[in-house]
Design a protein that fits this description.
It contains 16 helices and 30 strands. With 640 residues, it is an alpha+beta fold. It folds into five domains: 152 residues, no CATH class; 75 residues, no CATH class; 110 residues, Phosphorylase Kinase, domain 1; 203 residues, Transferase(Phosphotransferase) domain 1 (Transferase(Phosphotransferase), domain 1, Orthogonal Bundle); 56 residues, no CATH class. InterPro entries: EGF-like_Ca-bd_dom, Growth_fac_rcpt_cys_sf, Kinase-like_dom_sf, Prot_kinase_dom, Protein_kinase_ATP_BS, Ser/Thr_kinase_AS, WAK-like, WAK_GUB. One of its GO terms (molecular function) is calcium ion binding.
Amino acid sequence: MMDFINSGHGYDPVQRKTNCSRLCGEISVPFPFGLEDGCSARMSFQLNCTNSSLSTLQFLNMNGDTGEITYVKSINIMKGLVNVKYSLYQEEYLSVSVPQDPDHYVASAGVVPQQWAVANLTCPEAQANKTGYACVSMNSECLAVNSERYYYGYRCTCMDGFDGNPYISDGCKDVDECNTPGTCNGTCHNTEGGHYCTECPSNTVYDAALKMCASTKKQNLVLGIAIGIGVGFGIILLMSIVILLIRRWKKDIKKKLRRKHFRQNQGLLLEQLISSDENASDNTKIFSLSELEKATNDFDPTRIVGRGGHGMVYKGILSDQRVVAIKKSKVIEQVEISQFINEVAVLSQVNHRNIVKLLGCCLETEVPLLVYDFIPNGSLFGILHASTTSSSIFSWDDCLKIAAEAAGALYYLHSAASVSIFHRDVKSTNILLDGNYTAKVSDFGASRLVPIDQTHVVTNIQGTFGYLDPEYYHTGMLNEKSDVYSFGVVLVELLLRKKPIFTSDSGLAQNLSNYFLWEMREKPLAKIVATQVLEEATNEEINDVANLAETCLQLRGEERPTMKQVEMKLQSVRSNRLRSSQVVLKNEDMQPLLSGQSQDTLPMLTAPSGRVDRVNIASQRNQNCYSLEQEFMASATLPR
């Protein structure tokens, strides 16, 4: 037992000083302990707050000669405990016990709890001395304190159902047991020092959260809401799982379907052909459907840039930022599939500056997709027939250049490629124009590969009305002269600026080729060609092109020229036009010299009026369109 506990004499249950400090830093010092004179019940309960910022609290030196210093860490009034820390080991003197808590406590250099007593009196002796009795609270009681060897004294505690400080008046307060969860399985009623429970009325049940009896209907409602929320979350979770599984299943189905289409479209064979064929384009690639869906924003209708005879054309942007045109069939028929595959086979063997470049294809759809270089300026048909404004900026020089380039491309297909290729659908819609207005022949869906030793092939009739060769239509025998006839219709379009099937002044639909051949016999050319052509072209050029178109439109194929002859004639017309333009310019340059003026003092020359002026404008706009070979041929005809 600690020797700071004295005999029963000297205990004063009344605090003599008011406004006593009860904190040392974070340590609470309740009565009967104190920090100042008059604030504790006896001198041995007076503590010294040596450092409030560090919460350092110690008893005064109570151990005499031992020099022992006791540091207090906390005080528990109800349990009669003081957590202390000793500076010396004196465990054999420091063990105490009480009957209600007989555990042994051994002091050490660490913090340990120690029992204490207010006086070394028995409870009856203490109660007999009313002026010195420590348990002054009405709801307190005396409790004996025993050491391991003998009875030592007493201390105070609050009765059951009360809590607080039994050493001060009205210090033991009633404890509300109803605040403790599970106290009653019904309605809880708190009383002074205790409580009692009553069962809930019928059709009610105790709600522990509300601490009251609630209607079973309300409980059922709450339970139903809780169950509903739980079931709702469960359904949402189940639906999410089902949706994920369905998506995965659909994704697997799509993969299987794409593989099936790839096999049906002879993808493996095409891969082998592209990799093994020396004549196939090095850049021909087989694209995946996901690549093209991403390039066209899942084939957004706003990306449609054209509708051809064999499908729709979408504008797309590949992952490497290349702008491409993607042709997709709008009719799901086996013949369309064959035409798409045929077009890949044709274009993989073609490499010409005036033929649209095939970048690759996709075989993962029911109808294969074709991927081309994107041609920004549309088609010859679109420019010729869209409106008066757009066609007026399309000069005669442009017409000759595009006609010659398209003729050269067809000549290449007929005789310069590894195998003869008959286009079978030559028309102004299939002559595209790039950024420099260079002609690009396109749409080989109806084309046929023909061995070199064959002059014709028997096929099903296919083509576009207005351009279709009558001989091929009646006999079914396709040859290179069928493309010549169709090209003749294009030449007539350039001369007359009319559509292949147009509405006459009488309101009847009329065939352009028949109209042209009939009018040539009945009227002079100046009466039937377009006004713009009359303004820009010479009579000789008009006659040459018109005669060329007339021979191309002969009913018998053997009377038509070859595409080589057509190209040579158009190149000749262009060379003569270029030569005459340069001669006129040279004559204009000589005039100041003949008049005796110095060349250094000449004013800036203006363009000559009439035809030459239009030639200069066209040549400036198309200065990059002539090849070196064409310029050499033109300059070779000039006088030396």
